[in-house]
């Protein structure tokens, strides 16, 4: 190698080493890693290739009879696989969170590197970035599967929570109001069709990042339309759902029945969490759940009453439950973590406000004490126990939404 070229290459590698190393004052390692990932570059692969190139340069310098610079020796040592692995483990001990971050990144189109990272452009391969990203994700997925195989049953990562948290971090707490634009960034084009039998559908080509989200143009409520779009985005990016191809019927959207298909429940949960982030509704979580609180959340987040009520149940510390009744029967309910009793499904008890509303009777707007046995299994209940019920009708669905709150002990000592 000519002396001039060797010195130029050495200078370039040392300049890159300053970026990849720990001592750069202008850009720390975490900032560089995030910038590379956002640009579609695998930092681990870039570091490995730098390590190999630096080793080759050091060998050439040594064979030419010159002394290998100490800075180059340090760069080689700092980027050794064992050192990089140790640093990665100390920086990102939670494998599932790291996986969620990388997983979401595979759906985002790469953009240009910042000018401060010009030296790192030598490690780009035009036309192969997607392959590198995919290989990195495949390695992470394999590692995660191996970890899952070693874990006891029931410890499957909570993907809707992990991926929605990363989604909110990437796009902001107001992302639920910009979903059409964000869908485009994820490679999805939103189409509308008059459909008779489905609310939303996700069309994808295997191996491609692109797809269509098809929404039923007959959906009347804007909140329902947005929830359906968020639901389909959930199908697109949640791990393990890439083989799904069946359109989502109306009964699957904003449905919280435990008997619902797990993939549909996961997509509903993802939608609820990005449309109603904890940070956006924090002011209402601390007070006792009420219809007024649910309506406030729905207005602020532009979501339906039912999804707002369910989201509140997942966050409140109060013992409460929301119940959906239709055609004289309890269809589903969602309790808070501290609501330890089971609500009886099936035929509604005539003493409930929900039954009164479905019979066409007037129902008070304020919470009313109702015999606890009208809603809950009687075993262990005090004979005089009550729950406080508020019921609000949903005429478009021929349904009624009940909020049950426990304000006192209802069980025998």
Summarize the helices and strands and which ones pair or pack:
Elements: H1 3-20, H2 29-38, H3 43-63, H4 70-78, H5 81-91, H6 95-105, H7 129-150, H8 159-171, H9 179-185, E1 188-193, E2 200-204, E3 211-216, H10 222-237, H11 262-275, H12 278-285, H13 291-301, H14 305-315, E4 320-326, E5 329-335, E6 346-347, H15 353-358, E7 368-371, E8 386-394, E9 399-405
Parallel strand pairs: 1-3
Antiparallel strand pairs: 2-3, 4-5, 4-9, 5-6, 7-8, 8-9
Structural descriptors:
13% strand; alpha+beta; Beta-Lactamase; Zincin-like; 3 domains; elongated
What does it look like?
This protein is α+β, with helices and mostly antiparallel strands and 413 residues long. It folds into three domains: 3-150, no CATH class; 159-275, Zincin-like (2-Layer Sandwich); 316-405, Beta-Lactamase, CATH 3.30.450. 46% of the residues lie in helices and 13% in strands. It contains 15 helices and nine strands. The protein has helices spanning 3-20, 29-38, 43-63, 70-78, 81-91, 95-105, 129-150, 159-171, 179-185, 222-237, 262-275, 278-285, 291-301, 305-315, 353-358; strands at 188-193, 200-204, 211-216, 320-326, 329-335, 346-347, 368-371, 386-394, 399-405. Strands 6-5-4-9-8-7 form a six-stranded antiparallel beta sheet. Strands 1-3-2 form a three-stranded mixed beta sheet. α6 packs across α8 (159-171), α8 (159-171) packs parallel to α11 and α13 packs across α14. The protein is elongated and about 95 Å long. Mean pLDDT is 79; it is low at 20-27, 86-93 and 109-129.
